[in-house]
Design brief:
Chains A, B: GO terms for molecular function: kinase activity. By secondary structure, chain A is of the alpha/beta class. Chain A has helices spanning 28-36, 58-62, 126-133, 148-153, 155-162, 172-179, 184-192, 233-247, 254-271, 278-282, 285-298; strands at residues 3-6, 10-16, 19-26, 42-49, 65-73, 79-85, 92-98, 118-121, 141-145, 167-171, 198-202, 208-212, 215-219. In chain A, the strands form two sheets. A nine-stranded mixed β-sheet of chain A has the order 5-4-1-8-9-10-11-12-13, sandwiched between helices. A four-stranded mixed β-sheet of chain A has the order 3-2-6-7.
């Protein structure tokens, strides 16, 4: 499979009610890539600064990630985020954010990546997402993420983007902001009216919702007792989902999409069991398959 | 099956963002009984006042409900509740409440009901629930509901009750209040430590969670687009669940309980499609079976 992801790579400092992790690897693209890589190789395009420490590079090499598009930019600093989770482990506050290299130009897409068939446009300015889209003429399946900032500040560009992609992934609050609909089915319908063939609305601990021409699917999250750090849950969900779809040859039938959501749910459930990518570095594909089976068995309510 | 329910019967006036329904039949016991009656006959114990209008009695006779324990008390007034749902159709405000007959003694349990095997103690003072429990020596399966008021004001009596029942049904915010745990799995474990064999934590539009010695089950709600009135969703969920369990002979295995939750989910999804019991009076058991099949198919994520 030729799955490519672009997005942030950063150094996070995370505080939770039970612990903290200073200066650990983070960023949407690396969480996504790690999760997707269980299904096959992932191409990564992103930049860090010259301050990026060697010891944080270990995960890049642990997972099946093609690093030809990873730039260590001299004279720039790495994106940094410091966040604090509240007692409920769902709500969080950003204590500080330094965009640094994220505020500069994206690194160039290597020539060897331009034949990528499966494209995930992680959350960034929709103008940047549109520019990226044009660099992948062979794309068979394009899925984008977005956020409240772009919905509010760049609605027209975002709508242009929505007319050109196959799928959109976003949070429930963002879906409400984008469509004005509080009912999740109506919000989904309003997104599909803007162009995408499917939309996945993420609800954190409450699971995820899919709307597609052939139907609607709601799935719960995997019941997680020992939540250490929710950072990257949405990105690993997206990575697991997209990795599954790429490995399936881009099958976007309702049945394939919901299994892809289940794959995303399962890898995200492992991700939150540790800070940073710690847990994902401990597990293998068989662990994911086993938990996928358990998840499917839990959801078997047929008579 | 000999399933009995006690609880409120009232006259509701409901305001939603899209409409209103003045002076319609409501109350936890009638929603519960109607939903449970699709699985078999239900015995109802409850009281209304002498102001209770004949035209609101129609649902009592439509469903398979034994009314021997329904008292129309002379000189008393019927419980009344007026509520307003906010734009999101989940949060609501109570505009007025008149306990009336609910503040008086419960009607006596008819002798013919005392051999009931399946007992649902709808939300009321835990002292009242304990007193009721003693009147059903043949009970094989006892499930109770409760609320924040009793958790805060009668914690000791509530804990005594929890030591004597098989299952507890409550909302997520109530589970947090009762146990101090924000994580739903940990909250469930803390409830089981107080005595019940299982606990079902209701999450409204986000579904429901079951914890049992043999495992945990999270189910989503059925994706509902046309929500007219959420009143009674939790009570019909409980009724569908308990009706299913009674019809199964009181099988409280994990597998039976999760199918019972699915039955509750499905009947609640119909209930919210109309004000009061309108929709439940239009459908039959085959509608529930069809939607149960659709729900099970939606949740099939097996490889």
């Amino acid at each position: 499979m030729s799955l490519i992801v672009t997005g942030s790579i950063g150094i996070d400092t995370i505080h939770t009610p039970t612990g903290q992790a200073p200066d650990v690897l983070g960023g949407s693209a690396i969480y996504f890539a790690a999760a997707a890589s269980f299904h096959g190789p992932v191409r990564l395009v992103g930049a860090v600064g010259d301050d990026f420490p060697d010891e944080l590079e270990k995960p890049f090499h642990h997972f099946d990630i093609d690093l030809a598009g990873l730039e260590k930019r001299q004279g720039s600093k790495t994106f940094r985020w410091t966040g604090k989770y509240l007692e409920n482990m769902n709500d969080r506050e950003t204590l500080s954010v330094d965009l640094n290299v994220l505020a500069e130009d994206l690194p160039p897409v290597p020539e060897a990546f331009k034949n990528s068939e499966y494209l995930f446009l992680a959350n960034t300015h929709p103008g940047g997402q549109l520019a990226l889209l044009e660099q992948f003429p062979a794309a068979k399946l394009t899925v984008a993420d977005t956020m409240d900032l772009w919905i509010e500040t760049e609605p027209d560009l975002l709508k242009t983007l929505l007319g050109k992609i196959d799928g959109l992934v976003l949070n429930d609050s963002e879906a409400h902001l984008l469509t004005g609909e509080t009912n999740i089915v109506k919000a989904g319908e309003a997104v599909l009216a803007l162009g995408p063939k499917f939309v996945v609305i993420k609800k954190g601990e409450h699971g995820a919702f899919l709307l597609h021409a052939d139907g609607a699917v709601a799935l719960p999250a995997y019941p997680a007792k020992d939540v250490i750090d929710p950072t990257g849950a949405g990105d690993t969900f997206g990575g697991g989902m997209m990795g599954y779809l790429a490995a399936s040859g881009g099958d976007t039938s309702l049945s394939s999409l919901k299994k892809a959501m289940a794959a995303g749910t399962v890898v995200a459930s492992y991700n939150i069991e540790s800070f940073s990518l710690g847990k994902l570095m401990e597990i293998g594909k068989s662990d994911l398959e086993l938990r996928h089976s358990e998840f499917a068995a839990m959801l078997d309510v047929s008579e």
